[in-house]
Write a structure and sequence with these properties.
This protein has 265 residues and is mainly beta. Helix content is 8%, strand content 28%.
């Protein structure tokens, strides 16, 4: 008979051998596809209200977050809780408004209203726009029964991408834009590393799906070229801008969430 100490030693070696312990501790195969970190931050999203990390740019009370884009220009007015364009007559230069803060990648919510009284046609009817980084325009226009070039109607990335559908509600109706804008990235030598991209919903309807912008959108009578302007290196963050196109368009409930997508490689 084997001595008792040797027998116990053999049993212990069997029970607690590395192979046995590894087999017993091995996780079920399906857990190999589970990711536990990093943990996403918590953002409160009430059914009616702002996301907890939103930056309010206009809530109907004041224009503290805004300034005229043209030095010496006049601010817009507040009417019934809305921020309204004060149209300038030609030849005076229109007074666009820009944010005092600068932004790069953002999620934007904005509500707008074209005039209830229909005047003009084409690009002269309820025209405005929101310019990301002051350079890349998502077009605002009264596009109800108003023929114009399709890459200039409401919901277009101006002159670059026509909207997927015409989701306009009509003159005098409040409408919404919900947009994800990804800023362009530039290499240290100033060359484009990745283009700006945009996804946009108008009134809850998808009008732009992850489109790549070819460069800044052309704007104003000074740009009179047959080709669209190319990218030029600029800061990683720049102000948002709302356009005065000499039409009394109104805005309300404007907020953004700053996004932090990886830099282009």
């Amino acid at each position: 008979m084997r001595p008792l100490p040797l027998l116990l030693s053999a049993v212990s070696a069997t029970l607690f051998s590395p192979v046995f312990a590894a087999d017993k501790a091995a996780p079920p195969p399906y857990t190999l596809t589970e990711v536990w970190s990093p943990i996403p931050p918590v953002v409160a999203a009430p059914a009616s209200g702002l996301p907890s990390d939103a930056i309010v740019l206009f809530d109907g009370k004041n224009l503290d977050e805004w300034e005229p884009a043209v030095p010496g220009g006049h601010p817009w007015k507040i009417e019934d809780g809305a921020m309204a364009v004060i149209p300038t007559a030609a030849p005076a230069r229109p007074t666009d408004q820009r944010t005092k803060r600068a932004f790069g990648d953002v999620q934007l919510h904005l509500e707008f209203r074209t005039p209830a009284e229909v005047k003009g046609k084409g690009q002269e009817r309820g025209n405005s726009g929101v310019f990301f980084m002051g350079l890349y325009e998502l077009q605002i226009l009264d596009s109800t029964d108003n023929p114009t070039y399709v890459n200039g109607q409401s919901g277009s990335v101006y002159k670059e991408h026509a909207p997927l559908v015409n989701a306009s509600r009509g003159p005098g109706a409040w409408e919404t834009f919900d947009v994800v804008f990804i800023a362009p990235r530039f290499a240290p030598d100033g060359k484009l590393a990745s283009p700006a991209r945009m996804t946009a919903f108008q009134n809850g309807v998808l009008v732009q799906h992850d489109v790549a912008l070819t460069g800044p959108t052309p704007n104003g009578p000074t740009y009179n070229q047959p080709k669209l302007p190319p990218y030029e290196a600029h800061a990683a963050k720049l102000p948002l801008l709302l356009q005065d196109h000499r039409n009394p368009v109104s805005f309300r409930n404007i907020w953004v969430r700053e996004l932090n997508f990886p830099e282009a490689k």
